[in-house]
Design brief:
Elements lengths: L14 H5 L15 E7 L5 E7 L1 H4 L4 E5 L29 E2 L5 E7 L2 H10 L1 E6 L15 E6 L2 H6 L3 E9 L11 E7 L2 E6 L4 H12 L6 E4 L15 H13 L3 E4 L2 H4 L9 E9 L5 E12 L13 H4 L4 E10 L13 H19 L3 H7 L17 H12 L11 E3 L2 E13 L5 E8 L4 E4 L9 H13 L6 E4 L16 H27 L6 E3 L2 E4 L2 E4 H8 L3 E8 L6 H4 L4 E13 L4 E12 L6 H20 L30 E6 L23 H13 L15
Parallel strand pairs: 1-12, 10-11, 14-15, 19-20, 26-27
Antiparallel strand pairs: 1-5, 2-4, 2-6, 3-5, 7-15, 8-13, 9-10, 9-12, 13-14, 16-17, 17-25, 18-19, 18-24, 21-22, 22-23, 25-26
Helix pairs in contact: 9-17, 12-13, 13-14, 16-17
The structure holds dioxothiomolybdenum(VI) ion (MOS).
Dioxothiomolybdenum(VI) ion (MOS) binds next to loops.
Length: about 725
C-alpha cells in the first residue's frame, strides 16, 4: 500500500493531451470516405407527418442519401423488462408522429457539412400540426405516488405551533457541455464501431445492439475523451441510432454532430419541477411534520423520473413525514438526469422552506439545522455509515465568518452594496454499482489498469491510476490507464457520483488477484518459498526481485488480475446502513439596488464525501458545481414557444449560463472522513453534491439582502425591484 498516492492533488494524467490538442474527442475522428449526417428536425411540437419530399435535396451536389421513415428500416424499441437504459423510449423515424419540436424526421448524408446543411433546408416536410401542450405549470391533485411515509404528518401539521406551506418551482434547464453530442459510426463487414460522446459506453453498446438488432459482441463503442456531460450524455439518444443505421445502409462511415440548437431539443434537459413543502415545527424549531409533494413533466416519447424527495426522508429528524411524487405529461422532448437529479431541485424546495422556518422563528438557520440533526436514517430505520453534516455546518460557519452575521434584512453593507448571507445543506447518495476492471503486470515493469469506463472530465483516469498505484504500492507513473473502449472489461457509468467508489472496489480486488497470479509464476520458479509482492518487488526469504524480472525470467509477458464491484444495495453489509454524502454551502450575495445588480460574491463549501482520492480533481468538481449552482439560481431557464413547442432561447447567446464575470470566489474544504461501507479505501465519491444546496443558499442570501423570498427559479432582477 502506498498511502502517499491517495489524497494527493495529483494533476490529471490526461491533462497534457487535452491542453495540447492531442486528445481525440468523438468529432475528431475521420475515416476515408466518411459522410456527414445532419438531421432534418420537426418544426411542429405535435402532430403528424403527411409527406417528406426529398427530391430537391437529393439533387444537390454532394448529397449521397436521405433517410426517412420510408427507408431507414426497422429500429426496435427496447423490451419493457430490458436492463438497458434509454430515456427516449420511442425509436426514431418509425412512425409519422411528431412528439416534440425538433424531433428527427429525416437524415441527410452528404460529402461535407456545408452540403448536408444546405440539403437539410431543401427537404420539404408537410405536417398536420396540432398545438402542443408545453405549459410548465403542473396541475396538483392528480395521481401521486407515496415515496416515503412515517407517523401522521397531516394531524401533526394541523396542530403544529409554527407552520410553513409554500410551493417552489424550478424551470427546465438545458445541459450545455462544451462538447456537443456526436457519433461517428463505422461498419467493417457486419461489425460496428461507434465513437460516441457518452457517459456510459457499455450501456450504449447494449442499446445499439438491441435496437439495431446486431449481436452485442459485434458492436464496439469508444469514448476516449469527453468534453463534459452533466447527465445529458448518460443514455443514448436518437442521433446515435440513426448514424449507426445510416452508416450501415450507405456502406460508408458516418459522422453526426448534434448542433447547439438541437442540444436544446432532442438530447434531454432537466425537467421543470413544482414542489409543495409543508413544515410544522414547535416553538423552538424542532420539526414535528414534514410533507413534500413534487411534480415534474413526462413526455410522449418517454419518461425519466426526477426524484425530488430522495433526500427528504433522511436529511432531518422528524417523526411525521410524507413524500409524494408525480408527473404530468407535456409535449416536450424527453427529460433526463442533470447533475444531482432529484436532489438538486428537491433540496431547493426543502432547504428554502427550512430557511423560511428559521426566519419565521427568528432562529439562526445553522442552529435550526443542527437542532434537527437525526441520530439515524429515519426513513430506513438504519444508522448512517458516516454522517458529518454537523461538522460541515460548524466548519463552514467558521470559515465563512458566519458569527458576524446581522440577521436584519439589508442590515449588512459594503458601501452602497447590500450584502446577503445564506446557507443550505447538501446531500447525495453514496452507492456502488456493477463494474469490472483488470490489472496487468507486464514484463517491462509497467502496470496497466483496464476498464470500460470513461472520463467525463472529472478525473476518473487519474483516480484509477492512483487507486491502482496505491493497491500495488507503486508510483503513479508506473501505471497506464486503459479506458473508453467496450473491448475492455465492462466498467461503471460516469454518473451518480458512483464511478470512483465502484472502481475502488474492483481495483482492490484486481490488484490482489494480479499479485496472486504473479506469485504463482514466481513460485513455479522458487518451489516452496513464502513470497509476497511488496512495492513492486517479489520478496522471499532470500531477497527481493522486481516483478518484471520475475516475469521475464519465467517467459511470461504479463499476468492479469480481475476485480469487480456489485450493486451496494445488494451487499448485506452496505444494505444495513444508509450511505450518503453530506455538505453545506455558505453564500454571500452582493445587491446593488441603485443599478439593480445582483451577484454572488463568495461561497464556502464543506463536503463530507468520504475519503478523497484526489484533492485537486475533487475540489474542481465542487468548484464547477458551485458555479453551475449560481447559474441555476440566477440565470438558467429554457423558454418554449407555446404555439409550437420550440425553445426560444435555444442557443448560447440567449440561454444564460454562468461566465467568468459571474463566478464567485469558491472556498472548498473536504472533511476527508473515510467511509468503509462501500470499499476498503473509504471512498464514496463527489460530483453532484457540489450542486445540491447552492441555489437555496443563494435565494436565502437574496432574502437576507432584499427581503424578497424567491420561490421560483431563476431569481430575476425584475423580481427584486
Ligand atoms: Mo450525473 S446527472 O449522474 O451524469
Amino acid at each position: 500500500m502506498r498511502d502517499d498516492v491517495l489524497g494527493a492533488g495529483l494533476p490529471r494524467i490526461d491533462g497534457p493531451r487535452k491542453v495540447s490538442g492531442h486528445a481525440r474527442y468523438t468529432a475528431d475522428h475521420h475515416f476515408p470516405g466518411m459522410l456527414i449526417a445532419l438531421p432534418v428536425c420537426a418544426t411542429i411540437g405535435r402532430g403528424t407527418i403527411r409527406r417528406v419530399d426529398c427530391g430537391a435535396a437529393l439533387a444537390m451536389p454532394g448529397v449521397q442519401a436521405i433517410y426517412t421513415r420510408e427507408n431507414i428500416g426497422h429500429i426496435a424499441a427496447l423490451p419493457e423488462d430490458s436492463k438497458l437504459e434509454i430515456d427516449e423510449k420511442v425509436p426514431p423515424m418509425q412512425d409519422d408522429q411528431v412528439r416534440y419540436y425538433g424531433q428527427y424526421v429525416a437524415l441527410v448524408l452528404a460529402d461535407t457539412f456545408e452540403q448536408a446543411r444546405d440539403a437539410v433546408r431543401l427537404v420539404q416536410v408537410d405536417y398536420d400540426a396540432e398545438t402542443p401542450d408545453v405549459r410548465t405549470e403542473l396541475e396538483p391533485g392528480g395521481r401521486m405516488k407515496t415515496e416515503t411515509e412515517r407517523g401522521d404528518p397531516d394531524s401533526a401539521f394541523a396542530h403544529a405551533p409554527v407552520a410553513i406551506d409554500e410551493t417552489y418551482r424550478t424551470p427546465i434547464e438545458t445541459h450545455n457541455p462544451m462538447e456537443l453530442h456526436a457519433t461517428v459510426a463505422r461498419w467493417e463487414g457486419d461489425s460496428l464501431t461507434v465513437y460516441e460522446t457518452t457517459q456510459a459506453i457499455v450501456n450504449h453498446r447494449g442499446v445499439l445492439a438491441a435496437m439495431l438488432r446486431v449481436p452485442e459482441e459485434r458492436v464496439r463503442v469508444v469514448t476516449a475523451f469527453l468534453g463534459g456531460g452533466f447527465g445529458g450524455k448518460l443514455w443514448p439518444w436518437s442521433h446515435s441510432l440513426l448514424a449507426a443505421r445510416a452508416a450501415q445502409l450507405a456502406q460508408r462511415p458516418v459522422k453526426l454532430v448534434v448542433t447547439r440548437q438541437m442540444m436544446f431539443r432532442s438530447v434531454g434537459h432537466r425537467t421543470n419541477t413544482q414542489q409543495r413543502i409543508r413544515l410544522g415545527a414547535d416553538g423552538k424549531g424542532k420539526l414535528i411534520s414534514l410533507q413534500h409533494d413534487f411534480l415534474f413533466h413526462s413526455a410522449p416519447a418517454g419518461m425519466s423520473s426526477e426524484a425530488c424527495g430522495e433526500a427528504t426522508g433522511y436529511l432531518y429528524s422528524c417523526p411525521n413525514l410524507r413524500v409524494t411524487g408525480g408527473s404530468r405529461q407535456r409535449d416536450f422532448g424527453v427529460n433526463t438526469a442533470m447533475r444531482g437529479p432529484g436532489a438538486v431541485p428537491g433540496m431547493f424546495a426543502l432547504e428554502s422552506a427550512m430557511d423560511e422556518l428559521a426566519v419565521r422563528l427568528g432562529i439562526d438557520p445553522v442552529a435550526l439545522r443542527l437542532l434537527n440533526e437525526p441520530e439515524l436514517d429515519e426513513s430506513k430505520g438504519v444508522p448512517f455509515s458516516s454522517r458529518h453534516l454537523r461538522e460541515c455546518l460548524q466548519l463552514g460557519a467558521e470559515r465563512f465568518g458566519w458569527a458576524r452575521r446581522d440577521a436584519g434584512i439589508g442590515a449588512m453593507r459594503d458601501g452602497d452594496t447590500i450584502l446577503g448571507w445564506g446557507v443550505a445543506s447538501a446531500t447525495w447518495l453514496g452507492m456502488r454499482r456493477p463494474a469490472q476492471c483488470a490489472i496487468r503486470l507486464h514484463d517491462d515493469g509497467v502496470v496497466t489498469v483496464r476498464s470500460a469506463t470513461q472520463d467525463i472530465g472529472t478525473g476518473t483516469c487519474t483516480v484509477l491510476a492512483q487507486l491502482t498505484a496505491h493497491a500495488l504500492g507503486l508510483d503513479v507513473d508506473r501505471v497506464r490507464v486503459e479506458i473508453g473502449d467496450t473491448d475492455l472489461p465492462p466498467g461503471p457509468v460516469s454518473g451518480g457520483s458512483m464511478a470512483t467508489a465502484s472502481l475502488a472496489t474492483a481495483v482492490a480486488m484486481a490488484a490482489r488477484h494480479a499479485a496472486r497470479q504473479l506469485l504463482d509464476v514466481a513460485g513455479r520458479e522458487q518451489e516452496g518459498r513464502e513470497l509476497a509482492l511488496v512495492e513492486g518487488m517479489v520478496k522471499g526469504a532470500d531477497g527481493a526481485q522486481p516483478f518484471a524480472d520475475v516475469l521475464r525470467h519465467a517467459g511470461v509477458e504479463y499476468v492479469e488480475g480481475q476485480g469487480e464491484s456489485r450493486w451496494s444495495f445488494k451487499d448485506p453489509h452496505a444494505k444495513s446502513v444508509s450511505i450518503q454524502s453530506f455538505g453545506c454551502h455558505f453564500v454571500e450575495v452582493a445587491w446593488q439596488p441603485a443599478i439593480a445588480r445582483l451577484a454572488v460574491r463568495r461561497v464556502v463549501s464543506v463536503i463530507d464525501g468520504g475519503r478523497i482520492v484526489n484533492a485537486k480533481t475533487a475540489r474542481n468538481q465542487i468548484e464547477g458545481a458551485v458555479q453551475m449552482g449560481v447559474g441555476m439560481a440566477l440565470l438558467e431557464h429554457t423558454h418554449y414557444d407555446h404555439r409550437n413547442g420550440a425553445p426560444v432561447n435555444g442557443n448560447l447567446a440567449d440561454y444564460m449560463m454562468v461566465t467568468h464575470a459571474d463566478a464567485p470566489h469558491v472556498d472548498v474544504t473536504f472533511l476527508d472522513h473515510p467511509d468503509h461501507a462501500l470499499n476498503e479505501y473509504g471512498v464514496r465519491g463527489v460530483g453532484e453534491i457540489g450542486l445540491v444546496g447552492v441555489a437555496p443558499a443563494i435565494t436565502a442570501a437574496v432574502y437576507h439582502a432584499t427581503g424578497r423570498r424567491i420561490r421560483s427559479l431563476p431569481v430575476t432582477i425584475e423580481a427584486l425591484l
